[in-house]
Specification:
elongated, 306 residues, alpha+beta, 2 domains, 8-stranded mixed beta sheet
Amino acid sequence: MDAAAFDRQVRIRAFEFLTQQTELLGEVLPWSVLSRGFDFEGHRVPLIGPQGIFKPAVLPEMPISVATSPEVEGRRRPYDDGLDEEGILNYRYRGTDPRHRDNAGLRLAMERGAPLVYLFGVVKGEYLPAWPVYVVGDDPAALSFRIKVDEKESLRSLVPASPVAAEARRSYVTTVTLRRLHQETFRQRVLHAYQGRCAICRLKHVELLEAAHIVPDSDPRGEPIVPNGLALCAFHHTAFDRHIFGVRPDLVVEVRQDILAETDGPMLRHGLQEIAGLRIVPPRAAASRPRQDLLEIRYAAFRKAS
């Protein structure tokens, strides 16, 4: 097998591995799974390393993945990668030397149209993978590459799309993918801050938990940051969004009077009426706790709706 065919087969196997692991473990994969990787013809192929641009030893020239570090609350990422107005992800160089071997490897991947994996850090040690992604531009002045995500089905297509159609599709897929990555990142970080428990009923089944915005994301003030989030089970998230109950700035739950006066089954009694006066359990880290100004905005909306 020549070098090009070998490289292609390793990438295909990497995508198959990621499909299997996400079906087994969910969308978010731990560092341990990604760094262990898979075996290919007697070689171990990890998918992530200590640096953002990663080439496993088995591949002779081009990287197999690019990764974005998880954000730490109150601190900026080491590299502020982001989506521009054209629907393209700007990914920072390794260092400042355009000729660094990692940057040269990504440039070669761009020239050859090689598909890669994008690993988006959500919390420490956990990543959301997206694939296939392609390097579509190089901007030495800005020390960054331009990257687009494509549909997984494109890897199996026997008839390549026209360049114009492919670019339009990739722009759309990149925008949708980055939006999903940021939404899932908000969820993961909020659940992590609340130790995987509902702030109201303390339910700890993560598959039933959601990240609720204190100030809705439709509001310019409703940023996807942990201090604007509450970990809630699906039931209490819906009730919170419908203003059936509110959370005062002192973190005490207030339930609508008509709900307290209603007679129904045990779900109403235990799930809503008995939470009145309860104080939610905030995250331990001060930087992750609900911000008082955001709670005041949401509580005012609850009182108005009541």
